[in-house]
Amino acid sequence: MEIQALGRQIAALRKEKGAKQEELARYVGVSTQAVSKWENGGLPDTELLPKIADFFSVSIDTLFERETPDNGELQAALIKRIQETPRKEHFRRVFNFCWDMERAMMPHGHFIDIGSVEEYQKEIGKTDVEHYSSMQQNEGFTHMGIGNRLQYFLIVPEPKDTDTALFNGIDYPALFRDLSDKAIFDACILLHSRDHKKAFTPDLLIQKLGIDREKADGILAVLSKYHMVCTSQIEINDGLQTVYNFKPTPSFFAMLIFAREIIDRPNTFSYFCSNRNKPYFN
């Protein structure tokens, strides 16, 4: 083994991370002079190697330039791990991977290794307070709900052009006007709450929402505009009757998640880092 390789790698990893020698020294528990000595050919004490590797989130083999991270191998290992997980546990495991990625993206000093989401919840104890995590950088942002009420993970790399990504040809005010009609909003909740394989007629909305036929027809016209319902015909009593089929979408559920956070703004974060200094819309 070439001893100088360790010093070169420590210096390279530190510069790649954008950390100062003082930060590494403080994390490992040595003097800044000791770090400088390592980077100029000195050798750290063996018991310090795991701590140094942890600072850079790499293996000890990587410190000695014996291992080059391979994204392909990492992806293959991740896929294999998920595939080997019982299907009913897929979302729990993937969510914990998201939790790991969220923490790994935090700047050094913010990260606390407290294990899985389940272990984190045990750490904070029983509470009605929802916990969140968010990283807001110029390169994009993350937002994560890790509380007992609802768990989710959102990551948005910075789009090249927000007009193209979000606004061109999209009439947001029309959607918000439609959903501000309580009967239309209630219809969306109702239809997302029942078996979507069951066809229905306007009578369902009339009975469940306490509205008249004209209002029910208007609601169905709006939902058709957003491709949430379509029509088909069935034969009843030697005649054809038009029935409706509902097309549920997780986008509506997701919209409620983030609409609630605008109304009831999150204020308890396990991790939060905001270095963003540019507007969200360009």
Describe this structure in words.
The protein has 14 helices and 6 strands. The chain is an alpha+beta fold and 282 residues long. Among the domains are: 3-63, 434 Repressor (Amino-terminal Domain) (Orthogonal Bundle), CATH 1.10.260; 172-250, Winged helix-like DNA-binding domain superfamily/Winged helix DNA-binding domain (Arc Repressor Mutant, subunit A, Orthogonal Bundle), CATH 1.10.10.10. Strands 3-2-1-6 form a 4-stranded mixed β-sheet, covered by helices on one side. A two-stranded antiparallel sheet has the order 4-5. β1 (132-137) and β2 (140-146) form a beta hairpin. α2 packs across α3 (32-39) and α12 (202-209) packs across α13. The protein is elongated, with a radius of gyration of 27 Å. The model has no long low-confidence stretch (mean pLDDT 88).
Major sheet details:
4 strands, mixed
The percentage helix is 40-55%
Low-confidence stretches: none
Please report the total strand number as a whole number: 6
What value does the average pLDDT take?
88
The run of helices and strands is: HHHHHHHHEEEHHHHHEEHE
CATH topology of the domain at 172-250: Arc Repressor Mutant, subunit A
Top CATH class of the domain at 172-250: Mainly Alpha
Radius of gyration: 27 Å
Let me know the CATH homologous superfamily of the domain at 172-250.
Winged helix-like DNA-binding domain superfamily/Winged helix DNA-binding domain
CATH architecture of the domain at 172-250: Orthogonal Bundle
